[in-house]
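In this supplementary section we document a worked example of the pipeline. Step one takes a protein sequence of length 298 as its only input; no multiple sequence alignment statistics are reported here. Step two produces a three-dimensional model, which step three serialises into structure tokens for compact storage. The input and output of this example are shown verbatim.
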Amino acid sequence: AQNVDGVYPEVYRILTDDNKIEITEEEREKILSTTLSLYFRTSKFLDAKNKELEDVFAFIERAQQKFGDSDKEMNMYFGDRNYTFKMSDAEETKEQMRLNNKMDFIVGHFGNWQNFIRHKYHSQITVLKVTKEFPLITSDNPVEIYNHKYKTADIFDPNNSIQLALNQEYFLWISPNTQKSDRNIIYRGARDKWFAFTLNFSTHASATDWIIGREDTLAAHVEQHKTYTTAHPEGAEAIESIQSRALGLVEYLDIVEKQGIGSEIAVNKFKELQTSQFFKDDPMVLEMSREMKEKGFI
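The serialised model returned by step three reads:
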């Protein structure tokens, strides 16, 4: 309450102020601490563990019904603990296990949260502003961990990036560990409606029970979701555009990571992106082009 919720308004003001570029070490720590806390404090981890527990007991109960003998003593190892009980006492044991799950979740939340803050110590902090045409939504799982190379359950994979919608217009992106940058800078940029559409689609898919936003924003999202995910000409065009952009950017970032932003192969790949129909008038590419011209790369 004091060190996360109490400072979030300050963090929110920093991240949504277009003129705020330089940050102090303390401000950076607050940004990482508050935003990453939103990932670890959701109940999805505890819910998954309790679902696993219910499945185990359902299996045991089916076996007991088949073979009988509810007074037979059973041993179970679950959540790094050993349990000994009789099936006649199964409900009491399961309740104790659920309580232990909750305690493990709370302790694990604090441990993983602090370790993750240290893990992202050198990652680039970027705030992107999207068009008002597609307002952003959020969900009961507001923070997404995204890996642009492969799917992994390892939250500490160095290729993971962190994504979080701050409001209808602003989006926070914390880079993979492979992309280190100036620690005391917030990088800022703009994105188009297809970028916002992709974010909303991903947010919708990762929600457990709720998608969250203003009434008009949610209504607009539902209509956009129907329009652009059905066999509709504009929807097919949107999906093709999103897929092509994602593939092109991943290829470019891989080249930059291996060869450097000023290498001939990276510059040629960027020029290829510039000429692609899918990046025409894209604000991100236009800004990247301006910066690369200033540095003499193109």
